[in-house]
């Protein structure tokens, strides 16, 4: 049985193997893409060791052969200007870590609640809340009523009306609606909400503080956490929790001691994703920080400074030191994520 | 909020008598667990999304003048939107209209015909009032965008930030999805070094978008960048990609793709790997080609994940701002300006009302697109 060249090249000898021709094509595409992914990173890496002359004279590729690597940019950032750099770095670390922990915790709790309890928020009460909020806004914006006063009065009236009239409404929403509402918050482009958030923090004098950015990032990432964790919690069998409850464990105890450890794959993947988003966020930080709470992305963006043009070398250094914490976290979480990052979550 | 604990079992030892204040608090917490679990998230979303959303709506309908130390707000209803859609900012948001070309008319008629066909098909097959109302939004958006494209792009005129954003979203996300899926498919084959490829392909997602913007600006530089010898050799040494609208847009899209393909790759790889091997091997034994196997077996298994990941990507795609801001600052002219950047520039020039109006238009388009996509594509695929 003689095989033609085409058959030899492209028909697999057995079902678990690939034909040599297919193999060559597959590997060359994958290697090409590896090159496409790694080359910009390599270029940023070597640029961080270049002097201004090396950058501006035209491209030089190989350290020690094409050009003499110098540590001047690293020195500038970590010896001379170390205060600014380290401040931004610690700001970023504090903000990203705190907001990640907060949103993973709060989001998991909400996701767990939606997976295990049944909620029936009354439609009429929600409508009342929205109307009350619009009235409060008009009172503040149009007629200049003090915002603390009008918020307090608005909330008081709403609570009173909800208590008094709440049971008259029959139409109610379900868990699915709450879930959809929470997840759909991710559709909000940050630019829509950032100016009011800015004004809000200005009113309570929290602009340019860690707390303001942490709170904002926590909320921005909540929908993702709820989305991903909801499906993880749904996939956990309920028997364990049930028996723990029969043994007298509280709901919070069950959540903390049984549910969270069981879903650590999902938690790890979610944490990594949320951490990456919080660590790299730019637009909100641009509005909410001016100097004290400046984060790393703002520092990178600021490298395009004045008459000297873009400081390519310093900027490259910052980009490289910015990747390190993410890689560390990815390695730490790797053993939980090994299989199926995000998978259980996006099955829908 | 009425709560039914559907997991409650009769005879659960909940009502154990307790003494200390701490225990009583713990009991109280346990009794109200349903509220304790969900309220933190609800309150945070109310304060940081719903409240700003309403405030932003009011701002979008006001004219705000900043004075030294204070500001003056005047309510102007829809004047800000009018200015963007029909007034002096029309060229910025929608584009310049200067007569339709023949091609423009053809496109406009084709789009209209498609919409009419879609409407009559829907009305004939499965008509509900709610579904019809929801689809009205989808239809008007598609119709509006189709006519806009016909009047600007297909008639050879400039389009504004709306067109640019849609270019990034539609063309960018399609390319990213196809490449990400292709790479995931290749990596799901029996190859060596799968872990290596998986780790390497994931890296771009970790880099801050600002950094990606700068890195691609370096890459694309025709005098100092790594490819400048190639540019010189091709006789394009003094050509600047940033001075031509389409090259600038394409470079931004390439940078964006470089960053986001990993996301699609990782999720799709996980989905492909979870397809049962038996199905695939049975088909192989039956002598199906790899393309047939992919089309008939694998794809139908991963399509719900694919629809969801594409939705997530589209949601994030509408928010693009870092790359155009860093790589071109929206230039040349307004050619690469996304809607978020448009709004940001308006805020910088202290025009708060216009800024909020543009942001709201972005919100409207994003919501209609994403909800339509979710209802018409994702839900259908998940149910199927």
Protein model, in words:
The complex is a heterodimer of chains A (348) and B (384). Helix content of chain A is 72%, strand content 1%. Chain A has helices at residues 5-10, 20-47, 52-56, 72-80, 82-116, 123-141, 147-165, 175-184, 190-203, 210-235, 239-246, 251-262, 264-280, 283-288, 296-301, 312-337, 343-346; one strand spanning 118-120. The longest helix of chain A is centred in the first third of the chain and has 35 residues, at 82-116. Chain B has 384 residues and is mostly helical. Chain B has a single domain (89-383), classed as MetI-like (MetI-like fold). Helices cover 69% and strands 4% of the residues of chain B. In chain B, strand 2 (62-67) and strand 3 form a beta hairpin. Chain B is globular. The interface between A and B is large, with 111 and 113 residues. Strand 1 (118-120) of chain A pairs antiparallel with strand 1 (2-4) of chain B, so a sheet runs across the interface.
Write the layout of secondary structure elements.
The complex is a heterodimer of chains A (348) and B (384).
Chain A: H1 5-10, H2 20-47, H3 52-56, H4 72-80, H5 82-116, E1 118-120, H6 123-141, H7 147-165, H8 175-184, H9 190-203, H10 210-235, H11 239-246, H12 251-262, H13 264-280, H14 283-288, H15 296-301, H16 312-337, H17 343-346
Chain B: E1 2-4, H1 21-31, H2 33-60, E2 62-67, E3 70-75, H3 79-85, H4 90-93, H5 102-125, H6 129-151, H7 161-187, H8 194-202, H9 209-220, H10 228-233, H11 245-273, H12 277-285, H13 290-317, H14 322-327, H15 339-348, H16 352-383
Antiparallel strand pairs in B: 2-3
Helix pairs in contact in B: 2-16, 3-16, 5-6, 6-16, 7-11, 7-13, 9-11, 11-13, 12-13, 13-16, 15-16
């Amino acid at each position: 049985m003689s095989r033609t060249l085409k058959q030899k090249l492209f028909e697999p000898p057995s079902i678990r193997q690939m034909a040599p021709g297919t193999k060559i094509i597959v590997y060359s595409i994958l290697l090409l893409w590896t090159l496409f992914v790694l080359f910009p990173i390599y270029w940023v890496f070597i640029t961080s060791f270049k002097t201004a002359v090396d950058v501006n004279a035209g491209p030089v590729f190989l350290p020690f052969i094409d050009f003499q690597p110098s540590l001047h940019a690293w020195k500038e950032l970590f010896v001379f200007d170390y205060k600014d750099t380290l401040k931004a770095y610690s700001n970023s670390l504090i903000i990203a870590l705190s907001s990640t922990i907060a949103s993973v915790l709060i989001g998991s709790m909400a996701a767990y609640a939606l997976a295990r309890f049944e909620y029936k928020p009354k439609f009429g009460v929600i409508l009342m809340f929205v109307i009350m909020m619009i009235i409060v806004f008009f009172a503040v914006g149009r007629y200049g009523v003090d915002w603390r006063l009008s918020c307090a009065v608005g909330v008081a009236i709403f609570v009173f009306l909800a208590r008094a009239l709440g049971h008259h409404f029959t139409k109610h929403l379900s868990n699915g609606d709450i879930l959809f509402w929470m997840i759909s918050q991710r559709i909000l482009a940050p630019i829509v909400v950032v100016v009011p958030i800015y004004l809000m923090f200005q009113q309570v004098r929290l602009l340019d503080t860690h707390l303001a950015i942490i709170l904002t990032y926590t909320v921005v990432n909540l929908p993702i956490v709820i989305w991903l964790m909801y499906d993880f919690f749904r996939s956990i069998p309920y028997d364990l929790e049930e028996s723990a409850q029969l043994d007298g464990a509280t709901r919070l105890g069950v959540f903390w001691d049984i549910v969270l450890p069981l879903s650590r794959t999902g938690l790890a993947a979610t944490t990594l994703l949320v951490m990456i988003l919080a660590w790299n966020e730019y637009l909100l930080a641009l509005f909410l920080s001016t100097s004290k709470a400046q984060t790393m992305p703002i520092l990178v963006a600021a490298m395009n400074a004045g008459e000297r043009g873009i400081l390519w070398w310093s900027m490259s250094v910052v980009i490289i030191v910015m990747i390190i914490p993410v890689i560390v976290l990815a390695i730490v979480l790797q053993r939980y994520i090994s299989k199926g990052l995000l998978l259980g979550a996006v099955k829908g | 909020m009425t709560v039914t604990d559907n997991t409650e079992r009769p005879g659960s030892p909940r009502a154990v008598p307790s003494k200390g204040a701490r225990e009583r608090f713990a009991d109280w917490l346990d009794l109200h667990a349903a509220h304790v679990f969900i309220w933190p998230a609800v309150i945070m979303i109310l304060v940081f999304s719903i409240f700003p959303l309403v405030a932003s709506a009011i701002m979008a309908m006001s004219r705000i003048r900043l004075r030294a130390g204070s500001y003056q707000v005047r309510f102007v209803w829809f004047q800000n939107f009018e200015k963007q859609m029909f007034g002096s900012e029309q060229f910025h948001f929608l584009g310049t209209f200067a007569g339709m070309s023949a091609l423009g008319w053809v496109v406009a008629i084709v789009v209209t015909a498609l919409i009419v066909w879609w409407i009559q098909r829907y009305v004939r097959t499965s008509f509900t009032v709610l579904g019809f109302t929801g689809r009205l939004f989808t239809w008007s958006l598609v119709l509006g965008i189709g006519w806009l494209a016909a009047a600007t792009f297909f008639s050879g005129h400039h389009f504004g930030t709306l067109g640019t954003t849609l270019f990034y979203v539609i063309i960018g996300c399609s390319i990213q999805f196809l490449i990400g899926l292709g790479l995931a498919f290749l990596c799901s084959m029996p190859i060596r070094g799968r872990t290596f490829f998986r780790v390497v392909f994931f890296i771009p997602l970790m880099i801050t978008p600002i950094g990606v913007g700068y890195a691609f600006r370096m890459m694309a530089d025709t005098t100092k960048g790594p490819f400048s010898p190639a540019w010189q050799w091709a006789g394009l040494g003094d050509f600047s990609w940033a001075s031509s609208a389409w090259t600038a847009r394409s470079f931004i899209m390439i940078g964006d793709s470089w960053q986001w393909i990993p996301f699609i790759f990782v999720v799709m790889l996980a989905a492909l790997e979870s397809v049962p091997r038996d199905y695939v091997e049975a088909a192989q034994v039956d002598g199906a080609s790899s393309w047939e196997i992919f089309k008939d077996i694998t794809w139908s298994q991963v399509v719900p994940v694919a629809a969801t990941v594409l939705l997530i990507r589209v949601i994030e795609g509408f928010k693009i701002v870092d790359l155009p801001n860093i790589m071109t600052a929206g230039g040349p002219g307004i050619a690469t300006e996304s809607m978020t950047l448009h709004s940001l520039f308006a805020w910088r020039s202290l025009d708060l009302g216009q800024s909020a109006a543009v942001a709201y238009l972005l919100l409207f388009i994003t919501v209609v697109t994403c909800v339509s996509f979710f209802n018409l594509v994702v839900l259908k695929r998940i149910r199927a």
